[in-house]
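Exercise 7b. Backbone tokens:
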């Protein structure tokens, strides 16, 4: 019976790159990767009572400009991602944009976050974190009038750059599903 060759310490026989050959969590070594321009776009929604959405739209919420504060919170969160997610690399972001769209038909606010950098690892987690924290901030600022708000649909919509290339979500905004578009 032969013994399998040992896996070098920073390599994993599993597609889950944050685990070494012994199954222990580790931070992936990106030192040998080329620096490339990387972009990630994430989105999510918060659904609420129509009256709550009207307060947000009119800017008359008790705590002030809900979407302005949520935008700043999302930007700040993107910059702190490596402090929140244990195995994320600190990244020198070159751009963070957080945008909101009012969706009256569903009494929702859609948040879209775009992150960019030139570096050795992607910015997907930064875009997802920005989206999540922006939505949490909308909840925080409006919870006095609507504790039943529901956040959901947080997902990666698109990513470009790096070794793994491009990814575009297979389904339209608000639908369920994963994976790249078929060729």
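Sequence design result:
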């Amino acid at each position: 019976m032969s013994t399998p060759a040992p896996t070098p310490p920073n390599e994993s026989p599993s597609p889950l790159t944050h685990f070494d050959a012994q199954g222990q969590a580790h931070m992936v070594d990106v030192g040998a990767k080329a620096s490339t321009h990387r972009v990630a776009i994430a989105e999510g929604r918060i659904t609420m009572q129509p009256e709550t959405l009207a307060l947000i739209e009119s800017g008359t919420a008790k705590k002030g400009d809900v979407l302005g504060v949520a935008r700043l919170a999302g930007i700040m969160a993107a910059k702190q991602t490596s402090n929140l997610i244990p195995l994320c690399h600190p990244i020198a972001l070159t751009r963070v944009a957080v945008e909101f769209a009012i969706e009256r038909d569903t009494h929702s606010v859609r948040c879209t976050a775009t992150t960019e950098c030139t570096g050795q690892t992607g910015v997907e987690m930064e875009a997802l974190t920005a989206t999540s924290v922006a939505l949490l901030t909308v909840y925080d600022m409006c919870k006095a009038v609507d504790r039943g708000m529901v956040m959901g649909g947080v997902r990666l919509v698109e990513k470009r750059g790096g070794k793994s290339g491009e990814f575009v979500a297979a389904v339209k905004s608000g639908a369920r599903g994963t994976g790249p578009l078929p060729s």
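Instructor comment: DSSP finds four helices and five strands in the chain. The two ends are 44 Å apart (CA to CA).
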